Amino acid sequence: MAEIVLDGVTKSFGKTEVIHPVQATIADGEFVVIVGPSGCGKSTLLRIIAGLETATAGEIRIAGKRVNEVEPKDRNIAMVFQNYALYPHMTVYGNMAYGLKIRKLSRADIEQRVQRAAKILELGPYLQRKPRELSGGQRQRVAMGRAIVREPAAFLFDEPLSNLDAKLRVQMRLEIQKLHRELRTTSVYVTHDQVEAMTLADRMFVINAGTIEQAGAPIEVYDDPATLFVAGFIGSPSMNFLPGRREADGVEVGGGMKVPLPEALRASAPQSLTVGVRPEHLELGGTEGLPFRLNVETIEALGADSLLHTNFHGTPLVARVDGHAAPAAGETLTFTVLPRHLYFFDTASGKRLRAGR
């Protein structure tokens, strides 16, 4: 296992800087998920750690050693890709053992490592099968087994579950969680799926346009987003946003509705503000808090929960309610929000307003 340090790492293509200076440390044995939308630079950052891309500036250290000029094969890392990249003519055993044979390990050592990985991943019954005889989830487990047998200092995962259907993705997330609990190997996992990030990470890096906007434990990032982007990206469904304008001690958000601005924010709040509220904090028929009259336009029935898609003076809002108490589409109803559940953002900069900042 190993600590990974990114010290001022940047990446440019020509004059365009696609990864802005990154200062981050991934602790020994930690599972970090880099999450963000397509094109934000998350896979590029992972490839820089792996040595498949060259950093324009900055330093990468693995286990205390600078690796900028070290070849990928010599960095003591193992990668698992979205594409399983299995050799179709080899058995499961052959695919897992091939890299060890190239490194000239003894037959006994190869056997021991492959059998151990097969036991961890429950691949024992499939060792003599070819990849074409396996399901997608089994093929991905073989790809992970091929990485495990190397006994690397760190695992790097590049969207490994994107090719699987929804049920298999859930199953494989559980497999990866169990794998990390057993091996405790430093792991960096890239995904655009914030549900994967929330469920897998010890800590997540939320990246936007080449910049890490926030790093922290999943529930901390969810409860305490630093920017509009993070608040809107983390959470399913995402946070609701109401464009507003500062008026004395409050924020006018439409239809004459005025939301009180916390006293600690009044001295520094700009004129243009955005007010955020999570869907679960819009309480249908509540008796306490700020009242919002919302027209229910459509309903997503999810079983235990229902998502109500509503409209507030031209601004769409989503409310999460008990699935067995959902109203009918077309109704106009009162929802309430407790003031402590409101978030305030500077619309121009996107930064969250906090007391004393």
Characterize the structure shown.
The chain is of the alpha+beta class and 357 residues long. It contains eight helices and 20 strands. The chain has a six-stranded mixed sheet, sandwiched between helices. Helix 2 (92-102) crosses helix 3, helix 3 crosses helix 4 (136-148) and helix 4 packs parallel to helix 5. It is globular.
Describe how the helices and strands are arranged.
Elements: E1 4-13, E2 16-26, E3 31-35, H1 42-50, E4 57-62, E5 65-66, E6 77-80, H2 92-102, H3 107-120, H4 136-148, E7 154-158, H5 166-183, E8 186-191, H6 194-200, E9 203-208, E10 211-216, H7 218-223, H8 228-233, E11 240-247, E12 250-254, E13 257-260, E14 272-277, E15 283-284, E16 290-301, E17 305-312, E18 315-322, E19 332-337, E20 343-346
Helix pairs in contact: 2-3, 2-4, 3-4, 4-5
- Look at the structure and give the mean pLDDT: 92
- The named CATH superfamily of the largest domain: P-loop containing nucleotide triphosphate hydrolases
Distance separating the two termini: 38 Å
Spatial order of the strands in the main sheet? 6-7-8-3-9-10
Question: Which of globular, elongated, flat, extended, rod-shaped describes the shape?
Answer: globular
Broad CATH class of the largest domain: Alpha Beta
State the gist of this model.
With 357 residues, this protein is an alpha+beta fold. The protein has helices spanning 42-50, 92-102, 107-120, 136-148, 166-183, 194-200, 218-223, 228-233; strands at 4-13, 16-26, 31-35, 57-62, 65-66, 77-80, 154-158, 186-191, 203-208, 211-216, 240-247, 250-254, 257-260, 272-277, 283-284, 290-301, 305-312, 315-322, 332-337, 343-346.
